[in-house]
Every structure is written in structure tokens, then in C-alpha cells.
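Render this sequence as a predicted structure.
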Amino acid sequence: MISKYNIPRWIVYLILVGAGAASFYYIPTLFGIDFLIGSFLTFLLYRLFGFRIALIHSIIFAYATFYIWGHVYGSAAMLLEFLTVVFLYKKFRQSLIMADMIYWLLYAGGLAAGLQIF
């Protein structure tokens, strides 16, 4: 068993494949901003099944981001998001939402602004 909920391994892998496929879909909004659901799914998988399954999904989501946007900057930001949020979550025992807000406000905001300049 992979999860703490006694779910068979094949169902976990089926959920992982479904979440990976869902990561390739996005909702375009105003001003060319895309709403991606893969980050939410990564943290959901982290809470349900642990680090390894969520890391696999995060890599799939990074590839999906590269496929959608056509450059590696978004992929790097999404992988760093998962790793940083898990580190903050384990170190400070905050909620995942608070750790994600800290990541986007302190790190990723400057990263995105710096990439727009160059």
C-alpha cells in the first residue's frame, strides 16, 4: 500500500495518471493569464499519498507547463514551488496554503518579475 488509507497500488497509479492528464488542461483568463490546476493536484496528492507520488506528479506538471507555454521558466517555477512548499511545510508546520503563499509572495514573484525584464 502506498497511502495511509489502504488504497490498492493500482488505484493510486490510476489517480496519478488522471491527475497527470488533467495537468495538461488550463483555463485561459483575461490578459493572457492561464489558470493551471496542476499545482492544486500536486498538493492534493501530497496530502493523500505522500512525497514520492506528488513528486512524480510535479514532474509531469512541469512537463505540461513546458508543453503549454513553450519555455522552461514555468516548469522550473512549478518544480521549485513543490519542493519549497514541502520544505516550508515540514520545517515550520504551517498549512500548505500558507507555505504556498509565502513561496509566491517572496520567491516566485521576484522570479517572474526578473524573467519579464530579461
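Summary. DSSP finds five helices and two strands in the chain. The chain has a mean pLDDT of 84.
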